[in-house]
Design goal:
Layout: E1 3-11, E2 14-21, E3 30-37, H1 41-48, E4 63-70, E5 82-85, H2 95-98, E6 122-125, H3 128-131, E7 132-134, H4 141-144, H5 150-160, E8 168-172, H6 176-187, E9 192-196, H7 200-209, E10 213-215, H8 220-227, E11 233-238, H9 243-252, E12 253-261, E13 283-286, H10 293-304, E14 314-319, H11 323-332, E15 339-343
Parallel strand pairs: 8-9, 8-11, 9-10, 11-12, 12-13, 14-15
Antiparallel strand pairs: 1-2, 3-4, 3-6, 3-15, 4-5, 5-7
Helix pairs in contact: 5-6, 6-7, 8-9
Length: about 350
């Protein structure tokens, strides 16, 4: 049984490095030796806001690495393959997987099937044939890491909103997922991409990645309505997970448009519809990170062909030994941080 130095949830609001015993991979599993990982906003929610996740839980669901061992029944992968794991694992055989909804797999015994432990020297992934993809030789770890979660989530928000070429999109909050939604809106041909953000470094990044306008959160509704001639946008993307932001998305979406939410509403006991009726005759959709090996391969192909480049978001680099401090930096948005590449020796 291998032992891996891993970031764990020590208590509410606090992480620590600890030695974690990893079992040998069972049927359908692979053991991945991590080469690069990162910290996600969902990690902060798990540590700070979700008491159901117990102390001692290995952290991290975005990992790139080399397969160290392969469990019984795995057919597509071999020891030594350089791979990325989807953050949500899937069996490939249940009803939801057969419907193409790999993110909500019913076959692995969990409603979310989230990977845990990628912020460590090694981690296990279940349903490996359906949850893990080989990385093309032309893509480095810094690019490949994005497809595990946030690039897929950001693109998924745009896809679920059914954004078409020439349409208008407002994207509320330009953290890592919001920036990936901005990339997605540009990729799918949105003509007017309005980013909502107040932090200067994120304003600059949003413009760099495709936003045609950037408006302040304080005046977002008025500014977006002015930009669209009071019609509203075809789709508004909620990436922050706040009641007010959700309401603002409703207010700026035209009749017949779509509010697409990928925000994590941790710590909010109930999400309410706006009392002014601005949700009427709008479609409201929510989205997990689209998952599965085919999804990973689709995004890796975009990276390989130079169609999308999320790597400018990697503003800082740290080693696994420094991950506790990296959590504090990311949580407190210090030093203009957007995304941290955490290398694992």
């Amino acid at each position: 049984m291998p032992i891996a130095k891993t970031c764990v949830k020590e208590e509410t609001g606090k992480v620590a490095l600890a030695d974690v015993d990893l079992p040998d991979p069972g049927p359908g599993q692979v053991l991945i030796r991590t080469t690069m990982t990162t910290i996600c906003g969902s990690d902060i929610h798990i540590v700070d806001d979700i008491p159901e996740v117990p102390a001692g839980m290995p952290m991290g669901h975005e990992g790139v690495g080399i397969i160290e061992a392969v469990g019984e029944g795995v057919e597509r992968l071999r020891t030594g393959d350089r791979v990325v794991s989807s953050c949500l694992m899937s069996c490939g055989d249940c009803a939801t997987c057969n419907d193409g909804e790999m993110a909500i797999c019913e076959g692995l015994g969990s409603p979310m099937n989230l990977v845990f432990g990628a912020q460590g020297e090694a981690f296990l992934t279940s349903g490996a044939d359906h949850s893990v993809a080989k990385i093309p030789s032309g893509i480095d770890d810094r690019h490949a890491m994005f497809v595990a979660d946030i690039l897929s989530t950001g693109f998924g928000a745009i896809e679920r909103a059914e954004v078409k070429a020439g349409q208008s999109v407002a994207i509320f909050a330009q953290g890592p997922v919001g920036l990936c939604a901005t990339l997605g809106a540009k990729h799918y041909g949105a003509e007017r991409i309005i980013a909502v953000e107040g932090l200067p470094e994120r304003v600059e990044m949003a413009t760099r990645l495709g936003a045609t306008h950037v408006v302040s959160p304080e005046n977002a509704v008025d500014e977006i309505m002015s930009i669209t001639g009071n019609r509203g946008v075809d789709a508004a993307i909620e990436c922050l997970g706040k009641q007010q932001t959700f309401e603002n998305c409703c207010k700026v979406t035209r009749l017949g448009g779509t509010i697409s939410s990928v925000g994590v509403y941790a710590g909010i006991p109930a999400l309410s519809l706006p009392t002014d009726g601005s949700f009427v005759h709008r479609k409201i959709v929510t989205t997990f990170c689209p998952a599965g090996a085919e999804r990973l391969e689709f995004l890796l192909d975009l990276l390989d062909r130079g169609k999308v480049d999320p790597s400018p978001m990697l503003t800082h680099e740290r080693s696994l030994d420094d991950i506790v401090g990296a959590y504090d930096m990311f949580r407190n948005r210090e030093d203009g941080v957007i995304k941290i590449a955490v290398s694992v020796p």
